[in-house]
Structures are given as structure tokens and as C-alpha cells.
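REQUEST ID: PR-0412
SUBMITTED BY: lab tech R.K.
PRIORITY: routine
TASK: structure prediction, single protein chain
INPUT:
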Amino acid sequence: MSSRQDLYPSRQQAEPQWLERQDPVVYSQDPAAAPIASELIAQYERDGYMVIPELFSPAEVAVMTTELERLRHDPAVLASDKAIREPNSGALRSLFEIHHDNALFGRLACDARIAEIARFILGGDVYIHQSRMNLKPGFIGKEFYWHSDFETWHVEDGMPRMRALSCSILLTDNDINNGPLMLVPGSHRHYVGCVGATPHNHYQYSLRRQDFGVPDNASLSRMVERYGIDTATGPAGSVVFFDCNTLHGSNSNITPAPRSNLFFVFNHIENGLQAPFCEQPPRPAFVADREPVKPLEIVEQTYA
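STATUS: complete
OUTPUT:
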């Protein structure tokens, strides 16, 4: 283990450990300068997430969905290491690094409608730490268990501080029945250090089913008793922003209606990855970008 100071240790102790957050949630201090309503920024700071309904038009969603469907049926894509399949059905679950490999989704990552919000919340220039398509097909889409993204990004990728956020663009209607994102509002203020050493090549399993780096049942129960559970629902074209440390998960989808989204992680340029805070080598670049990074060139985009 490196002699670096580890502000958020996890998977190192025999018992779960709660730590208070040591980083801001919203780094910019002038709400009047926000690219969205100050009330939304206040909600994000309080709850660790916010939903902006129909940020993208139906015509734009149609363009994105057409591209998603093309990729979903491309044999070369399905054979790629970047394609993660459902554990039982073999259906495509996630496709990583879409901002790098796909021109349309690369433009979307730089779209001012989402990137300027990330830039404001994180207090300066940002880059894409991770991107992916997430698919939860009707009838067979499996759950994502409760976790804090930052716990994994810190331990397995070496992200030092909580200065990142996730942006999920809904390409299908997300309702309470088809496995929408569930979040524990307020959980982003606390960091749950988990138990169990990180296995070798853990990413190969955790992207299908996560067993390490998940909070224990007692910690989850305590967190939910304190804060409750919210569901992030909305029509296609809506966008969910949530803090890197907000506990979240989702149920399986046993309805006929599929659930699809595009997922971009924005990280502040000064919060670049270090060596992992565990005894394993870094995860692959398509999961966590650790190349010399440059700030996104944020521009207004159109797609329809």
C-alpha cells in the first residue's frame, strides 16, 4: 500500500466504517452564475441528485436511440471487451467508452446543456472519467445493487477526492415499474468504508454483479432509516445528475418496457486518477480514463 494519505479508506478493515464527507458537494460559490435554476443547485447540494425533465427533445432522443440500437446489434460491438453482457441471458448490459468510440456520443459528452452544469457544480474544467450505454431490457434486465460510485472509483481507480458527478440521459420513459434509478437522498454526506479485499480483475465481475465495494446491510438500513429512498423517474429526454458518493441502485426490470440511458461521468481536471487505493493494478482505460486528460471543449449541440 502506498504511503499516500487515503482520506476515504475502504476494503481495508474488518468492520464497516462510516466517515463524514471531507469535500464540498457544489464547488462553485455563486448560485446566480449557475446555468440552471438556483433551486435545482440547492436540491442537488441537499439531496445529492436532481432530475431535469425533458432537457433533450423527442427528435434528439430519437437520433440517440437509433444509434444505440445500431450499436446494440453490431456483432463487432458485442464481441468487444467494452461490451458487458447480462449474467444469465447474455443480452448487452453496458457498452463502455462511448464518448471515445462514437462520434455522436462524443459530441453529446461536450453538449453545453449537460457539461456546463457539471462544470459549475465541480467548480471548473472537467473531463470524461467514464461513459457508457446502460440497457435494461424488458423482462430480463437485471438489478444494480446499492453502491457509491466513488467508493469504487477511489479504491480501484485511484480517484482521490469527491469532485465528480454522474449524468444519466434517459432514452426511454423511466417509471416506477421498469427498474428506475433509486437513490438515498442525503447519503452523499457520508462515506461507508466496506469490508473485503478487492479481488484480482474485479471489474470483470463487478460490472455484471457487484459483490465487493457494496455497503453492508446494517449500514444500508441505517442510511435508509435516516434519509429514505427516492426514485428518479421521468420521460425520455430527461437527465439525472447525481453526486459521485450518493448511494444508488436499481431493481430488475420484469415489465415489457425496456429502460435505456446514456451515462457520462464528469471529473474535475485537478482530480485526476492516481494509483488505486488497493493492492490491485488499475482497471482498464475504457472503464476509467487515466491518460493525460484535457478539459472538455464545451459547445452547444444539435442532433435532429
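NOTES: The chain has a mean pLDDT of 92.
REVIEWED BY: pending
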